Amino acid sequence: MLLSQVSITGAQGLKDIRIRNGRIQQLAPAGSLTAEGEEYFLFHRAIAFPGLINSHDHLDFNLFPRLGNRIYNNYREWGKDIQEVNKAEIARVLRIPLPLRIRWGIYKNLLNGITTVVNHGRQLRVEEPLITVYQRSRSLHSPAFEKNWKWKINFPFIKSRTFAMHLGEGTDKESSREIDSMIKWNIFRRNVIAIHGVAMNPQQAAAFRALIWCPASNYFLLNKTAPVHTLNKQMDIMLGTDSTLTASWNLWEQLRMAKKEKMIPDKELLNMLTKIPAKTWGLGDCDNIAEGCQADLVIAAGKNGVNAIDRFFSLNPEDLLLVIHHGNIRMFDAALLHQADLPGFEIARFSKISMNGRLKYVEGDLPGLMSRISKYYPAVAFPVSMP
Q: Using CA atoms, how far apart are residues 382 and 286, in angstroms rounded to an integer?
């Protein structure tokens, strides 16, 4: 596969990218590589960036609408409130069979240009994954909702030494005390990755491997987010979307929310979706567009007259032209269809959808999945439609 004339974020000039056997084989100045009987895509003013890494999602919870009835002091108040007020709505979504909910959660990420997602919660059986679903760390929900968490984190014969847990998800003193309790009871000093950390201070941060920052979810529940501009001096920070229970399905809206905070430089925000999680989760070289690296990458249209980083932050899902995972095309814009019409390209593997009026081809039967889900939950509101 040859991708021609793209602007790579962080690099100068237009480039050609050749992909073979799931990896980036060649990277050269635009126009210097020629197609050799392979899929060939010629772009105009497009940007390329590594496939994004979403460090926190609940894949089976992405068919929920946002549920919350006020601003809360902590996640415990929120959980109790929605179980009382929104009980019927929760039951309707949970009637959808688990495999269908998981499949939609994967598509939610793919449609946003995410090629690796870290699932939090119980181990899920993922059939024919279109993106990488990371489940190698040990998920603990939270101090309030994870039974026997002190025993679990100190059990001597566990395979995984990395734990991910909701911590400091609140604005009250109790949320801060939960962080102190984790520090105290982490007797064997396991690598703990905290999620949310709204109540975390720099002294507490020094005890953790990293923090997953979910600003959209934090503001929806608590009207406050983690002080990442002070915490990042003590720990790595990664970005997560959380599920649609508390955040928009659109990663790019969430990313602009994080940018608006002005707590983290723009290039570092991009690193929170690429280089930092790749290192923290041990994902290898999927975080870079360079010769020899794994071919997880995204090509997107962008506004004219601005640099690649600014164009990156202006994107929405409908602006994505091509999503590649392990060297395989998972989604492409209808404008590229005539370029993909080559011997060996299996268009039958793809289904057609519409995002804000832009036609996309997505691997698998996404319209069929949406139809099956709608039979169980007729009121479901999808962010994409069937043309």
A: 29
Rounded Cα distance, 336 and 14, in Å: 19
Pairing mode of beta strands 328-333, 14-20: unpaired
Residue 195 to residue 214: CA distance in whole angstroms: 8
**pLDDT score, position 156:** 85
Token output for 383 = 């962010």
Tens digits of per-residue pLDDT, 325-344?
Answer: 999 999 999 999 887 656 56
Query: What's the N-to-C CA distance of the chain in angstroms?
Result: 28
Mean predicted confidence (pLDDT) in 380-385 = 96
Residue 203's contacts (CB-CB under 8 Å, 6 or more residues apart) are none
23-29 and 40-50 as β-strands: parallel, antiparallel, unpaired?
unpaired
Contacts (Cβ under 8 Å, ≥6 apart) of 34: 2
The Cβ-side half-sphere exposure at 36, using a 13 Å CA radius, reads: 7
- 3-class DSSP assignment, residue 196: strand
What is the rounded radius of gyration, in angstroms, for the C-alpha atoms of the chain? 21
Cβ–Cβ < 8 Å for 236, 197:
no
Amino acid of residue 243 = S
State the chain's mean pLDDT as an integer.
94
Query: How would DSSP label each residue in 286-324?
Result: TT--STTSB--EEEEE--TTS-HHHHHHT--GGGEEEEE
Which conformational region is residue 94 in: left (phi greater than 0), alpha (psi within -120 to 50 degrees), or beta? alpha
- pLDDT tens digit string along 193-226? 999 999 999 999 999 999 999 999 999 999 999 9
Identify the three-state secondary structure at position 87. Answer: helix
Phi and psi at residue 244, to the nearest 5°: -75, 0
What average pLDDT does range 267-274 have in this prediction?
A: 96
Beta bridge partner(s), residue 57:
119
Q: Does the pLDDT value for residue 306 go beyond 70?
A: no
The DSSP-derived string for 140-151 is E--TTTSTTHHH
